[in-house]
Fold each of these.
Amino acid sequence: MAYTTFNANQFDSTKEPMFFGQNVNVARYDKQKYPIFEKLIEKQLSFFWRPEEVDLASDRKDFIDMPEHEKHIFLSNLKYQTLLDSVQGRSPNVAFLPIVSIPELETWLETWAFSETVHSRSYTHIIRNIVNDPSVIFDEIVTNPEIIKRAQSVTKLYDELIHLVCVQNVHGYGVHNIDGIKYDCTLWNLKCKVYLTMVSVNVLEAIRFYVSFACSFAFAERAIMEGNAKIIKLIARDEALHLTGTQSILNTLASGVDDAEFKEVAVACRDEAIALFAEAAEQEKEWASYLFREGSMIGLNAQILSDYVEYITNVRLKAVGFEELFPVRPNPLPWMNSWLSSDNVQVAPQESEISSYLVGQIDSSLEDGDFDDFDF
Amino acid sequence: MSKEKPVAGIPRIKLGNHTFYYQYEPSLLDALETQEIQAPYSCRAGYCGSCKVRLLEGEVSYTDEGMVDLQADEILTCICIPATHIEIELPDD
């Protein structure tokens, strides 16, 4: 069935699977199949921030005073983050929106991708503040072979899924040969691609991003580039929410409660899924040695960052029900937690929205016995 | 809503061989930290799942809504407080 922007069929969206059911018609949230997505949306909206809120004046001075090898670490890390958010700002929409079937998940995907565009805008804000000509940095993202290698891994599955869904839209389900290229658009293969793409997104958000956060926060642990760390802290707060979303989608799909066939898909794709985690961990370790090839910085070197890659990969594998790949070890960067905790994002109430303060959240449920212990 | 009445007196928290009184910290995680117990955490707001522990005995009440899939005996220490005497178990690593 070809995609339609407003499905005229009458149906109950709470009976639809997350993916490959009917196209969504009315964006309604009064009845929800998975309230988790509504909670994620609300939380994400309460997190809204703008890069310009953070003053970066002292970062410019810090950057100028840095030794060359630290400039290399800082800029390479920033370029990598820019790449990751460029991908995430558009891909969840392009890849998943045409195949999603429940309104709260559709809206979560859009809310999620939107917040990534705020992250992208904040990189421009950061780069503008530390160099005179931002083009020098942005242009190198597509020419630096180390970054290109990563770009290919993070986009491969997204692209394959998008191509298959496009072909399926025109030619329907089945295996199609177009200009000598075989496109397996069977529902089974499409489901495998969705599952693996979601794993690859989870790897991007939950491992790759966290490795880059470690570098950003390592500078701030030495009280330099603190404005940058403030922005990255806000980005990390959003990413923690996004990865909760992808983990929840993966666990729901694998459980089979949403769509029984996805349980078989998850079993069939298990090895490939674990290989995605392993590949990312390997690449991140290579990246660590690239970052520190001209010298380490106080508090962080290639070895510690590689240990962190192994630690965080184990944590993420466990969260989606896979076995750990690396020896179990305590967090090699314990100071990361104080940067990742959301209640430490300090803001004066008059300056911005407080994330924990929700408007219109009165518990109005009343039961027969609620006044029993009242004395009149 | 839990039908069980809260225990009279201050809830006790048991973790392995260590038992201590809850001192009305904002969360169970804070209570553990007051005792200098290294409990896992990350977001401290109920959405990352890092602070998941097993509740072996007793009940907790939540101060915020979690967003993480939990097994029946798992709790998120960053958004709950003890409602009764409780016994918990931290994850292995």
Note: Chain A has a mean pLDDT of 92.
Amino acid sequence: MLEKALVGSKKYYALVFFLAAIFLVGFFFFLKQLKFGLGITGMSRDVSWGFYVAQFTYLVGVAASAVMVVLPYYLHNYKDYGKLTIFGEFLAIGAVTMCLLFIVVDIGQTHRLFNVLLHPTPHSMLFYDMIVLNGYLLLNLICGWTALHAVYKGTKYPSWVKPFIYLSIPWAFSIHTVTAFLYAGLPGRHFWLTAVMAPRFLASAFCSGPALLLILIYIVKAFTRFDPGEKAIRALAKTITYALLANLFLFGCELFTSFYSGIPGHQFSIKYLFAGLHGHMKLVPWMWTAYALMLVAAVLLVIPQTRNNLGLLPLLCVLVVIGTWIDKGMGLIVGGFVPNPLERITEYMPTFPEVMISVGIYAAGFLIITVLYKIAISVMESRGLI
Amino acid sequence: MVIDTRVCQKYAPCEDCIHACHHLHNVPQIPYKKHEVKWIWKDEFEHAFPDTAHEYANEVLHGREFLLLCNHCEHPPCVRVCPTQATFKREDGIVMMDMHRCIGCRFCMAACPYGSRSFNWRDPRPFIKNPNPRYPTRMKGVVEKCTFCTERLAEGKLPACAEACKHGAIVVGDLADPNSEINKILREHFTLRRKVHLGTGPSVFYII
């Protein structure tokens, strides 16, 4: 099947080379970072995780969200997702790859990365994160690839792959739960020390991931004969709606606990993010943008007329993706570090090299997704399915 | 370790302990605050004890500076989260760092509720004015912190900060031994520990 990736239209080649070029630019800045150290970024002694970890966290959610098409299709035999499932799994492959790359660029001693395998440490949440992320990558490679290969051969997928499909469903929940546990188990970081962290991670993942999937599907639809069908799109829009509402509800729960209890430590980070703290307010416009976008999207998604307007839907998905990206990325990570444990304030913004390295990783991820989607489309075309 | 903050206030702005520690351990003096590396430093009461400070605090506390360093916790969160056991607890209770194993993920910095850990955001060596050849320097990309002078304890010496203090403000000893000098001091004085409610069990005590 891989040969399908090698032949394509001029537009396909142009996209592949464009993404590869951006990846190389990012790689150039990564070499600079290797030379100078992580001081090339905006991170500091007080805000010791930043843009990279924010992207990592967001993309774990995107990866996990593949389960929102896999589960109805394989567990409930929801046939309308038939064509969509492979695209969901391939998006997950791209997203997990980006997650792993963001970890690689975030650690200070890159060549010591495999110390995590050399000295396995079961009391560290990062140990489990390594297992679940790599496991999830493998599961999606197996499930996505064999499903597509069955289409290629014109048969049903082999029965040996079934256990892997069933395993991938709880596994998707596990990757985002463990990622939430990275933060939710730390004493002294009030903003993160909350039991609703994992549920909230899942809620935001299950709206942002399917929203991104729908945007990609709309793009694929515009350039190829592929069409998942209106029913599938409408069903996915409902998933996005419920998950977005759950995400906003859980945020409301956080606000209640922090402000009704009146405990100052629980309020500092939220105040910093939405109103600024002692005149420090770099993230305030970002956070209001994020919540304005999510609220507008939520209202328009709840109203059936606007949700079912297939011309408007991709725009609503863009609102969801941007809103959750700011909230769960920069807002969540930087908010947890401000104020610092001594209640002093150091602000953070990513630097130009830091953003370029991140853009390079996104290019790599979307390159993988482009190639996988191209293979899927070509296979379906060759079988006369689209 | 017990720090008599009354003595520190009496001889303020003495920084002998800080200079001794940072010189002996080749801690770089980086002027850019975001990249700062520090093992022991001073801060005000409301920052050292943010959960204890209040607006009606006694005037004596106002203006008194508190020495801050790794608390060598009984249940250290940094050790719990480290994915490579590069930071670990020794049998004697000291929370130690293996800077050759550290991958620089900075999970420990997120986990430490005392802000006691520093990361080498860049090569620290150009910022060490007068290097001590008897102690290693670090490379970029690793985390470091106070090691309770394990290298000096092994030779039967006191930690550098305790030895450097001419006024005897810093006393170290064995908490596990009920007859130790340090337990005697703790019985006789009112002391505070930083953020005890988090359950980390800090081993640095402050006489107020």
Note: Chain B touches chain A through 49 residues (CB under 8 Å).
